[in-house]
Amino acid sequence: xxxxxxxEAYGVLARCRPYFVTVAIFSxxxxxxxxxxxxxxxxxxxxxxxxxxxxxxxxxxxxxLAALLALAVLDIVRAGVLARAGIRLDRxxxxxxxxxxxxxAAAAGGARSQPLRDADTFRQYxxxxxxxxxxxxxxxxxxxxxxxxxxxxxxxxxxACAFVLLAMALLNERLVRPSLNDSxxxxxxxxxxxxxxxxxxxxxxxxxxxxxxxxRWRRDRNRMMERQxxxxxxxxAISGLIRFLRLSMQSLIxxxxxxxxxxxxxxxxxxxxxxxxxxRALQPVEQIVGSWRGMIAARDAFNRVRYLLLSAPIPPLHLxxxxxxxxxxxxxxxxxxxxxxxxxxxxxxxxIEPGESIGVIGPSGAGKSTLARxxxxxxxxxxxxxxxxxxxxxxxxxxxxxxxIGYLPQDVELFSDSVAANIARFQQAxxxxxxxxxxxxxxxxxxxxxxxxxxxxxxxGGAILSGGYRQRIALARAVFGxxxxxxxxxxxxNLDAEGDAALADCMxxxxxxxxxxxxxSHRPATVAVVDKLLLxxxxxxxxxxxxxxxxxRLNARAPIxxxxxxxxxxxx
Length: 572
Prior knowledge:
alpha/beta; 10 strands; 20 helices
């Protein structure tokens, strides 16, 4: 387990420590003020009633009301401090979690929004009513100490009751936690499958897959509900038993107090005060057990967030490197998916000089898209390195190197914002720079025909736009700012003849601007303007060199299926 001092999630909690220390102090004051009611009763029976003093009754009542008012105010303030602690936690964690999810996006499975939901689960528990009992529990010995002051026998009984309820709480943990953990795992799988199904709703509906998909969907759903039912039944049984024990103990201490009164050892007021104090001492244990599911969910959510941050640590500060010229060197590059034995890339080596235009071809499943992800640094190689001007793109901070890289992925998605914001990569950019990128991609006139031009809202994933529109706008995003290295993965898969012509013109302009461009495509026309060709087969380089030479070598031997019908998509 990681050292807590070096653990980012624990570090965030440490930065919120002043809030929790304040809440602990308020909890002490609140629990001291809770003594007002039993002490008031003690004085009523032992002083006011025997003396029949109205003045004493009035003064004690005024003091009681003042104490209860102070208690209510402190309780409100405590809730407010916890709420602000939640805001502080969110500000420290939420953006960091999103960054970590993005960093792990290529390797992450499941619902990628789950870590943010986990952070919200933990924050809501920390700021909710359930946490109050956790802060009250450490002060329960105060009440037991006061009961001891009334009589040692009463105090001993109260202490034994506290140990019994704590043992019941531990039993509750042992019985409930395994079922809840299993239920949470099944819930995570179910939510992940649901998100994936909704993303592919058109395919599901078009091919009548709903019934079969629901059968698969119910598998994890039913598992989740079954384990939740077991946990709920066990938790309810333990909670009911604890409530029975607490009420019984409060009544039994009354009986013990009555015996001591008969023996003239304590007063009647002490008997009733002991019962109230014992109830207050045991109440936090009952509340904690009652909210046990929420506590376990918050604890597991925090651990998942913690492990996510550990898997994507904040990169150390690096010396700011100058703008790269665009030299790319791939050195002994291999990539193997977890829990598999067949590498997608194996011992790949090549070098690209600044300003060169390279085409990557090969059959489906050859590893072309995997190579593209390696070139832009979104996948970490199993072995070897990809270097841009000698610097490893995998360790170069993304906030620094990202502006020098343009990437058009095979699966194009735009963000739910304006066309201009998407092209500008959500930077504060000059309008001229956005228009220049659109003109370079040959999409400027097309954007002007949209309802609101550059301010047109594209919807989730660019839903209001056709596939060709999305691909051409994504190309403008890739060339925005004239990066040093541009990687285009199947940039013509959704384009018509006009789009193909605009893409070819863009590639020629990038070549004239001495920008290193790597284009992956099945279409011969798309790679017709490149300087060199790289043939990738089964994750290995079969040929690399000037385009004419590679094509001549391919024509001289048995055909290799490197050209697919127009619009086809490549594999890995």
